[in-house]
Structures are given as C-alpha cells and as structure tokens.
Write a structure and sequence with these properties.
By secondary structure, the protein is of the alpha/beta class. It is built from 7 helices and 5 strands.
Amino acid sequence: MKKKAAIRIPKPLYRQKRQPRKKASQQIEAANQERGVDKSFALHEAAELPKHSALRCVELFAGAGGLALAASKAGFEHDAVLELNHAACETIRSNQRRGYKLVSHWPLIEGDVHKQDFSTWHRRADIVSGGPPCQPFSIGGKHRAMHDYRNLFPEAARAVREIQPRAFVFENVKGLTRQSFAKYFSHIVLQLTYPGVQRLEHEDWPEHLARLERIRTEGATTGLAPQHLFPPSILDRS
C-alpha cells in the first residue's frame, strides 16, 4: 500500500509579523460596543494623583498603610507616616521600591509613638489620622481596654493637642462601643473634644474623666482657640 504524499505548505519568503493580542481593557471595550453598553456610569481609576490639593496629613499607627492609602487617594500629602511594627514598615518600603505613586512620597518613621515629639508638625498638618491598636477592645481579645499597654488613644489625643490640626480621623473596632467600655469610651471622646486638658500625674483616668465632664458642663474653652476644640462625630459602619 502506497503512502500518501504529504502536502507541503510553502514558507513565505519573509517572516510574518504577529498580530498583537488585544489587552483585556480593549477586549472589554469591544464587548461593550457589541452589547451597546452605556459607559457614562462606568467607574475609571484616575491615571494621576490630584495636583490641585496641598492638604497635609500625619498618619499614626499606620500598619501596612491602609488608611494612609485612602488619604493619598483623596489628595492628601503626608508629612509623616508612623508605625512601630518592623514587618509593616518593610511592606511600605517594598511598595515604595516598586514605585507605587500613592506611597512613594511617604516619609516613613519606624518607632515608638510614645517617643515622638508631635510639635514638629504644629499647625502644619491639616489632618491627623490613624487606627490605634484594636486589641484592647476587640471581642476576640482579653478585653483589658484602658489597662492594656497597647491602648494608644492617650497618644492619639496628645498628637491632636500638639499638632492642632484642622480635623482628625481615628478608626477602631466595634467592640470599643460595648456597654462594658462605655465610661472609657466617653473618656476617649472627651479627650479628643478637649485635647488641651491634659491628664495630671496624680490623676487616674476616672478622675480625668470627671474633670473633663465638669469642663464640658461649664462650657470652658481650656485655653485653646475655638477652631481647635473638636466635637467628634462618631460613625458606625457596622
């Protein structure tokens, strides 16, 4: 039985140029055109950071930079990004080395917030933001609250007092608002409302709370200009 002769396709005299593959965005665009999708409501990521804003931010307890990223995307420029945990700081540095625009300009400070002199940014920062450690108040923790060494709300209040920003944003877990922490939560709110009223050396926190409540009742300004008294707004996003 004779073998069938193989059909040979003649090779071209020149190398044919491959057609470039469409990018995913181009494929989506073509599919939308076929379906007649209205793009007027589509969300698009901004190609560049906003250039019109000169608002300044100091970020405390930054972690790997989640809340600081939100500030950058909103157009804030950071004067400082503070974090104690070395692994979290290395995450930020890694993203800076990769050239991510949102983090490239962050002046990262790795260290203990207790040792930081916040007067460096006195009235220079427009906003102070951060997430004080949540372990003292978390439902999954030991619920030690004000007795936990990781409770850094006093340092947050000190930062607001020394910097005197136009506003501040602090986030924490829902467990902070439990009934068992109600009095201490009131203490946190009043510390941030009257940051100029410092806790005295001989005072424990209930005595400081009582003094803050008297000041609120009397309507005193505690030596701070009216624009630097803060009635905090509490947002529950649970």
